[in-house]
Amino acid sequence: MANYSVVTSDFINVQITNSGEESSCIERRFQKGITIDDFKGKLELLTGGNRATMKLEVYDKHNKLVCCPNEATRLLGSYPIDDGMRIHVKDNFISPFNDLSSVEKLEMSAEDYSKRTDTVKAFLTKNKLGKYNEEQMKQKEEEQRREQEAEEALIKTLAVGDRCEIEVPTQPKRRGTIMYLGTTDFKPGQWVGVKYDEPLGKNDGSVNGKKYFDCLPKYGSFVKPAQVKKGDFPVEDYDLDEEL
User: Fold this and answer.
1) How many angstroms separate the Cα of 214 from the Cα of each of 120, 135, 196, 236?
2) Which listed residue, 56, 125, 226, 229, has the most CB atoms within 10 A of its CB?
3) Residue ranges of the CAP-Gly domain (predicted)?
4) Does the pLDDT at position 72 exceed 70?
């Protein structure tokens, strides 16, 4: 005779509510094999409560109290909790209101804040992440300096009125005339304003309301010096009315 056994999932999906914010309901998935103490630790992150003081109540889909899983060393799965049930967290330390306008705010000077060891800034500094990595930031500044010098050197080889061909990655080559050279208000660095032979541009020589040069709408564009190839490029005759 074959032996049969009931196999149940190692996880349960439940809804979490708390006494501090009755209208809030969070749905989460938990392992049945964790202790109630560990489970309360996870609920700390979800509700803002304290595992040492919180009390748990489990309700079924009909809002009927099923059990109160509060024995710290007992496993969560040892309680009769099924998928879809609601676990309500009761805690005196959870604020019973959402309006924080009357809560006194902690104000701290930049100097005092920098001395604390439990802040995000302290963590980033300790682990040398982002802008708090001096070596990485110096390397980035050096790369930016070299890029700026290279752009300035390239732009000196160009002149307003030069014919050119523009090569931008993933885009077809376009020919035009250089109309502007130098810095702009819309982005840092050196820029080349070009009037294309065809309406393949993005503007009329204006960006954000400032006029840098004149051309017809959709004939103007700004590109980086490295994307400009100066040369004796003739203006091609694009007869749009001709049918083949």
Assistant:
1) 49, 45, 12, 20
2) 56
3) 182-224
4) yes
The identity of residue 136, as a single letter, is Q
Q: Within the chain, what is the greatest distance between any pair of CA atoms?
A: 95
pLDDT digits (tens, 9 = 90+) for 102-132: 555 666 676 776 667 766 666 666 666 666 6
Indicate the burial class of 31 (C-beta count within 10 angstroms; 0-12, 13-18, 19 or more): middle
Run of H or E including 172: none
For the domain covering 11-90, report its CATH number: 3.10.20.90
The pLDDT tens digits for 160-202 are: 999 999 998 888 999 999 999 999 999 999 999 999 999 999 9
Asked if residues 187 and 175 have their Cβ atoms less than 8 Å apart, the reply is: no
Whether 23 and 37 have beta carbons less than 8 Å apart is answered as no
**What is the predicted pLDDT for the residue at 20?**
77
Domain boundaries in the chain?
A: 11-90, 163-230
17 with 25: CB under 8 angstroms? yes
Q: CA 16, 21, 24 angle in degrees (round to 5)?
A: 50
Contacts of residue 185, Cβ cutoff 8 Å, sequence gap at least 6:
207, 208, 210
CA angle 72, 77, 78 (to 5 degrees): 70
* CATH no., domain 163-230: 2.30.30.190
H or E element at residue 96 = none
Q: Which residues are 223's β-sheet partners?
A: 192
Tell me the Ramachandran region of residue 104: left when phi exceeds 0, alpha when psi lies from -120 to 50, beta otherwise.
beta
Residue 205 has a CB neighbour count (10 Å cut-off) of 22
Is 151 a residue whose pLDDT tops 80?
Answer: yes
pLDDT of residue 19: 85
